Amino acid sequence: MQQCPFCKKENDTSYPKCPSCGQVMIADLDMRYEGTVRRSQRSSRNLIDKMWRFFASVRNGMYILLVTLLSTAVGTILPQRSYIPPGSIPSEFYASEYGAFGEFYHRLGLDQLYSTWWYITLLGLLGASILIASIDRFFPLYRALRKQPVKRKEHFLKSQLYTRICSMDDQELLLQEIRAKRYHIRQDGQDYLAEKNRFARWGPYVNHIGLLLVLLGAFLRLFPFFYQDEFMWIRDRETAVVPGTNQSLFIKNERFQVDTYSTEDPKFEEAIAQEGRTIPKSFTTAISVYEADGHIAGSTPDLQLIKQVQVSVNHPVRADGYTIYQSGYQLNEFSSLTFRTENGGRTADFVVDTVDPETSYELENGLLVELIDYYPDYQMDGDAVISLSKYPRNPAFVFQISSQSGDSERLFVSLKDVVSETDANRYSVAAVDYDTHNVSGLSVKRDLTLPIFLTGGFIFMIGLVQGLYWQHRRIWLHKQADGSYLIAGHTNKHVSSFVREADRIVDTCEKGGNS
Fold it and tell me: In the chain, which end has fewer C-beta atoms inside a 10 angstrom radius, N or C?
């Protein structure tokens, strides 16, 4: 007799259903590993065993997963650095866009959270937990299922989820009914073991393989060989090296072209008027892609043409394993500015290259101009001067102007204003001319980890379906001394469905035997 765990009444354990409440009576028998001891359950207390026990614990693995998920969520509060406008200076962008919180977010390094050492460590701990927990359980389960005997002791059979005593003369009828349910039957003397869907037990381990592949893909993205996502501005007729390619890949902007909606078209006239400017219809860049083997930075590269193509929005091109996207443009960017100075009625001009300015200029009127600071895209942030990007869209300069007599003056010079440090403004400085060029924005990407992510996700889904939609079911037939059969059964999930299936098999055989 056994007490029903649901209604607490004493009942015969030979049948799994309590006649009082109808619930299935489940005995306390651990059938996951058939009694095999896992390494994490051993009593050894050396350091390796303690570490193994820690990572093999599902509870500890859940804690690591929770911390990893929370850390990942923190990285989504503000955009990561790779998603801020191209060319922006991170410290100034986060401070201007999100205030003190954005500055604090940037200083903590959370704008590059997914490449920080501690986040990578979390991923490593999570991967170690998944791997060790899988190994700790896989081999005991493998040995238990591979070497499971057909003959079992009666106390083992009577402790299963399903037990029933069946008296019948036609044993073959019972075996036929079991085979009809797609069970595979093994025999040892007068005992039988019927089993099906053993592969369902491997579902969680297939899931773990998929997750480990996903984590492997995340780790490989830290190496430039496997993953690169670079953005570059290329001016008209300029040849530039692609960042992160070790000086091996170059792109030349052969021609950049922008098509706009016509103001003469009545369909767009009102929209253009509301916008207050021309609206781009499409923009394309004709590029030449070169490779340079063994190029050393600073030397003249020996370029070999790979491909000449045209890149447009939503129509990327592939070259040398990279995918090139048209991602933006800048019209009429300053390439140089001409400034005129005056000293005692004598004027002299000097030209400042906005891409690579010189540090000093000796003028014919006896002045020496030194470049103290340069703001390519300046903006006032309260009383401070900041640069929104490193590209010369609104340049400003701080010049130190000295004469041969030793007098000097520091000036802040922009396209509109000239501000003297001392308000004396002894030397007149003004922008009198400029040159511009168009700039094409290209994204150059290479992702060799994508197949790893897809493979890991596919394997994970296989394991998910394998574990959810099939159950490992076993039925033991043991012939007792009085000639009756003790029928015992076990399943790793969906007990009630298994009990109904076993009952139908036995009931059909009893009716057939009695007829």
Answer: C
